Amino acid sequence: MSQSRDFCPRCGDDVAPRESPRPGDRHEHDVALCDGCYFEAFELVDVPERVHVTVCPRCGAVHRGKRWLDVGAEDYTDIAIDEVSEALGVHVDAENVQWGVEPEQIDPTTIRMHCTFSGVVRERPVHAEFVVPVRIGKEVCDRCGRIAGGYFASIVQVRAEEREPTTEEAEVAIEIAESYIGKKEAGGDREAFITEIDRESAAGPNIKLSTNKLGQAVANRITDRFGGTVDDHPTLVTEDSDGNEVYRVTFVARLPKYTPGDLIDPDDGDGPVVVTSAHGTLKGRRLSTGERYEAAYEDGTTPDVEKLGTRSEAVETTVVTIEDEHAVQLLDPETYEAKTVARPAFVDEDVDTVRVVKHDRDLYIVPPKPTAAASEH
Q: What is the dihedral of CA 358, 363, 364, 370, to 10 degrees?
């Protein structure tokens, strides 16, 4: 009985039967070759003559194809290793492939990559060593070019109703913008950046941003933090290549008239209030009782009230005695006379001193400023 045999199509020698390749496999013609013919033209790694890398000297982004990519490399050697790794192609038949690379810095823009590869092909160990020269070119990326050119698409103006923003409000608003844009950048959004922050304007900070979407988001986050409203004012600046109108938008984050810590008198017969929140409606605590206060819905955050001062203007004075749950005797910080005043719920029995404000010769105890972990809302 005859036995079917396979022959090498190149030299005619007998070859051991092998698994048939999948139709369309780019290496299907190699499967029929004997080992001698197969390894005669075999290359473990497809190696380019050289690799050219374009890097932005400002941010370190690498240009690949038509895009700039943030690769997170610490220096040009890391970038060269990554680019060589992308450029090399290992033979599809190789198994158990291991490789290593040893960079050699020739000059600031040239690195030689000494590469070693090993693997197993047709149950035979294979090995390859080669050197790939890498040339580092420098070019400012689109993003850094726009930043350097002062490009911006939106402005966030931090303002306040009938007052100037406090130093704390201005600083926190800037921190909100920087934190939000920083997270966008860290997430790979190369369109996100702050062009300029004007901290010197007496009316409040002005923050220039790269897109209108970012401007809207930053303004919303500022008013989420402090309360208030956002107004937008678009200005037509140009048309794009398709004839579409391009607008630059100014977003005004207008903070409420009153801020937490302001002392006001609603003139409703129940005494002064320390403001605790200006979100939606004005909220606070009565200085005489410690009870909650909230302005009427229609008055929102700007009821018609008299501002008496701020919590920071309160002065410390001595508690003479706690008379009962509704009254406490204090020393007047101006005349040093003992005066009986209303004891709000936030005054404990064992306190020795409290902070007070004086209004129309009446003393009012001011609650301590809440800690970061506490909330007065």
A: 60
Q: What total number of domains does the chain contain?
A: 4
206: Cα separation from own chain's centroid: 19
Same domain, residue pair 266 and 251:
no
Last residue of a domain, one of 236, 255, 274: 255
Same domain, 27 and 56: no
- Residues 101 and 106: their CA atoms lie apart, in Å, by 15
Residue entry with tokens 């890097």: 55
pLDDT tens profile 82-95: 888 888 888 888 88
Residue 371 lies in a domain: no
Q: What is the reported pTM?
A: 0.71
- Strands 283-286, 245-255: parallel, antiparallel or unpaired by DSSP? unpaired
Residues 377 and 283: beta-carbon distance below 8 Å: yes
> In one letter, which amino acid is 197?
I
Q: pLDDT at residue 225 above 60?
A: yes
User: Tens digits of per-residue pLDDT, 291-305?
Assistant: 999 998 888 888 888
- Terminal alpha carbon distance of the chain: 96
In a domain, 64, yes or no: yes
Question: Mean pLDDT throughout 206-213?
Answer: 96
Query: Domain range holding 243?
Result: 150-255
